[in-house]
Amino acid sequence: MTEPHITYHADGSIWGKGSVQDGKMQGYWEWFRKDGSKMRSGHFNNDKQVGEWITYNRQGDVHKITYIQDGLDEKRK
């Protein structure tokens, strides 16, 4: 069963949030800058990045999309 999980910057602002199962990152995760803007988002399977990962600029626009298979970068747009 997955449980929600949040990690914090030293100043107490949210750094990352997603789900963990048996101590491993699972499913959709998001990371944030200290100013609260979303920095990156994507999915995990047993602590490994998989599928589409999106990096955002400070205005919230897509900066880069990376496709990851088996924990390795496959293709970038």
Beta content: over 45%
Order of helices and strands: EEEEEEE
Q: How would you state the average pLDDT, rounded?
A: 92
**Regarding quaternary structure, how should these chains be classified?**
single chain
What helical percentage do the residues reach? under 10%
Instruction: Trace the largest sheet across and list its strands.
Output: 1-2-3-4-5-6-7
Q: How many helical stretches? A: 0
- The total beta strand count reads 7
Q: Residue ranges: pLDDT <50 for 5 or more in a row? A: none
Given the helix and strand composition, which structural class is it?
Answer: mainly beta
Assign an overall shape: flat
C-alpha-based Rg, rounded: 13 Å
Quick recap of the structure?
With 77 residues, this protein is mostly beta strands. The chain contains no helices and seven strands.
